[in-house]
Design a protein that fits this description.
Layout: H1 20-34, E1 44-45, E2 50-51, E3 63-71, E4 84-87, E5 90-92, H2 97-106, H3 110-114, E6 117-122, H4 128-141, E7 146-148, E8 151-152
Parallel strand pairs: 2-8, 3-6, 6-7
Antiparallel strand pairs: 1-3, 3-4, 4-5
Length: 159
């Protein structure tokens, strides 16, 4: 018969961390794919109007955003009472809208050029004359598909 010896100085083995970098990079890639980064930071304050018959825009490709409202600084403080128009990351005038639309078209694929849609995000207190001027400039630039951003009106505020 053989004898079994007991080991009295037994230690717990160390934790194997060889697969830890693989796990970290997998999580990193997951968040890089899922996270949507904002391309344009609004430099104007706008509170979109409320509506009752709204449709959600499904096609994100070919969208160009036009912000109309009061200018604000990086902290959100209103700079003046003058209504400003923003495309991309800069302020423009109504006369420059055609040039900016042409620049946006140059950066798009042929498929997206055909589906070019301008999304107007205007403050609810913006004068209709300014919005009409923007619409006329977009028409001259050949951007005929226009969306207006709005929020759904709740039952409490409907009359």
């Amino acid at each position: 018969m053989s004898r079994f010896k007991r080991q009295r100085n037994r230690q717990v083995p160390g934790l194997n961390l060889a697969s830890m970098p693989d796990l970290i990079f997998t999580v990193l890639f997951f968040f890089m794919i899922v996270t949507h980064m904002r391309d344009v930071d609004p430099k104007v304050r706008y509170q979109v109007p409320q509506g009752t018959e709204l449709e959600k825009e499904v096609n994100k490709a070919g969208l160009v955003y036009v912000f109309i409202g009061k200018p604000v600084d990086a902290q959100g403080h209103q700079l003046s009472d003058e209504t400003r128009i923003q495309m991309g990351n800069r302020y423009i005038t109504v006369d420059e809208i055609g040039k900016e639309i042409a620049k946006e078209r140059d950066h798009m694929s042929d498929e997206d050029r055909q589906r070019l849609t301008v999304c107007i995000r205007a403050d609810r207190n913006t004068e209709m004359g300014i919005i009409n001027d923007v619409k006329q400039a977009l028409r001259r630039a050949g951007a005929l598909n226009i969306n207006y951003s709005a929020t759904l009106q709740s039952n409490k505020t409907r009359r």
